[in-house]
């Protein structure tokens, strides 16, 4: 075949050359996929050694995948639960109180030697009385008239008020009270059917959820209360400021406060920062004091609302039981006397007939 131009002839020669090169290069059985090894993947017609190599390669890849997933999970939880992320705008994505992480981690699924994973449990609520005192875990006998709770089927009691107060002050010490055998926080103070908070009603819900669990609500309410008090007493503050500014003592100290009033801006900012820290510290102290009062009120709500699961018989019932037992004894004595009299009568009749 004749070509009018030399360019198509060159293309044909190049194509033939490349075809010969590809035919001369030996082809391998597969390609390397492992990120750390150069093992080739055998085909279905491979020998036994190549099949063993394939199984080993697949096992290594499974190990690499598991290790990579574990590492990424730990990194993911550590990043999202760090203090910097807790103050970011995505705080609604944080896990609920009491949970350790978003997904299972090495810490959440690991236990010490000889221990088992914590399990949910129901509660036993009893009343400590003078005649039947209850011994608590980290204290002596509970005060008479107070309710005590323990995991179902055990006698490891703790007073209801002390348990709730410990939950509010240091939540990390609640479950170790029972050697971390039970999920106390989730079972008794969560959303499960055995929760103690299911008996507190609307009043307990507002106190527990809005004032104590949601801390910004308490801070906001306290701040609004202080603003209302300040606005209500504003005429008094105006009168005090006018008296101070017009007093002779204030102008006698003119050489002292004029240096502060005419100082540079950085010094004024420093004074404002120190004053803000002082006021914030006093506000935090006031908030802690009010929070303690609310916690005591929550403990009282739990004492009033949580029902008893084990009750003792009343004294009136005991007296009635004693009276019935005495009546039964008297009836038995009367019946015994009547039977003896009948026996004597029958004996007398027998002797008369003889």
Give your account of this protein's structure.
The chain is mainly alpha-helical and 354 residues long. It is 60% helix and 3% strand. The protein has a three-stranded antiparallel sheet with strand order 1-2-3. The protein starts with 5 loop residues before the first helix and ends with a helix.
How many strands?
3
What is the share of helical residues?
55-70%
What is the first-to-last residue Cα distance?
Answer: 161 Å
For the biggest β-sheet, the strand order reads 1-2-3
Main sheet makeup: 3 strands, antiparallel
Average per-residue pLDDT, rounded, comes to 77
Gyration radius, rounded: 42 Å
Structural class: mainly alpha
Low-confidence stretches: 1-8, 20-39, 85-101, 315-320
Q: What is the global morphology?
A: flat
* Beta-strand share of residues: under 5%
Q: Which series of helices and strands comes N to C?
A: HHHHEEEHHHHHHHHH
Number of helices: 13
List the helices and strands and how they pair.
Layout: H1 6-24, H2 48-80, H3 83-86, H4 106-109, E1 123-127, E2 147-151, E3 158-159, H5 160-169, H6 184-189, H7 201-213, H8 215-232, H9 234-245, H10 248-252, H11 254-261, H12 265-305, H13 315-353
Antiparallel strand pairs: 1-2, 2-3
Helix pairs in contact: 5-12, 7-8, 7-12
């Amino acid at each position: 075949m004749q070509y009018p131009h030399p360019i198509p002839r060159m293309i044909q020669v190049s194509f033939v050359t490349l075809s010969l090169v590809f035919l001369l290069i030996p082809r391998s059985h597969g390609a390397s996929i492992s990120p750390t090894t150069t093992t080739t993947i055998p085909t279905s017609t491979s020998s036994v050694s190549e099949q063993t190599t394939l199984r080993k390669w697949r096992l290594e890849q499974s190990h690499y995948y598991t290790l990579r997933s574990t590492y990424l999970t730990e990194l993911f939880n550590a990043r999202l639960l760090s203090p910097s992320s807790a103050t970011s705008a995505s705080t609604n994505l944080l896990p609920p109180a009491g949970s350790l992480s978003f997904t299972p981690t090495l810490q959440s699924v690991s236990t010490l030697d000889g221990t088992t994973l914590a399990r949910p449990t129901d509660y036993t609520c009893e009343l400590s009385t003078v005649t039947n005192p209850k011994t608590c875990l980290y204290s002596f006998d509970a005060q008479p008239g107070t309710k005590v709770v323990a995991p179902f089927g055990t006698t490891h009691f703790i007073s209801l008020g002390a348990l709730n107060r410990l939950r509010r002050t240091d939540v990390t010490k609640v479950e170790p009270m029972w050697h971390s055998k039970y999920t106390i926080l989730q079972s008794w103070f969560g959303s499960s059917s055995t929760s103690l908070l299911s008996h507190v009603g609307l009043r307990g819900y507002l106190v527990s959820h809005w004032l104590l669990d949601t801390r910004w609500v308490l801070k906001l309410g306290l701040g609004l209360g202080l603003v209302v008090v300040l606005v209500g007493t504003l005429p008094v503050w105006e009168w005090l400021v006018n008296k101070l500014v017009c007093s002779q003592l204030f102008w006698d100290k003119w050489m002292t406060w004029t240096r502060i009033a005419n100082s540079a801006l950085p010094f004024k900012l420093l004074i404002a920062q120190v004053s803000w820290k002082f006021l914030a510290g006093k506000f935090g102290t006031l908030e802690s004091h009010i929070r303690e009062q609310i916690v005591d009120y929550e403990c009282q709500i739990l004492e009033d609302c949580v029902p008893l699961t084990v009750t003792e018989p009343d004294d009136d019932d005991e007296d009635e039981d004693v009276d019935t037992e005495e009546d039964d004894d008297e009836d038995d004595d009367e019946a015994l006397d009547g039977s003896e009299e009948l026996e004597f009568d029958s004996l007398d009749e027998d002797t008369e007939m003889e």
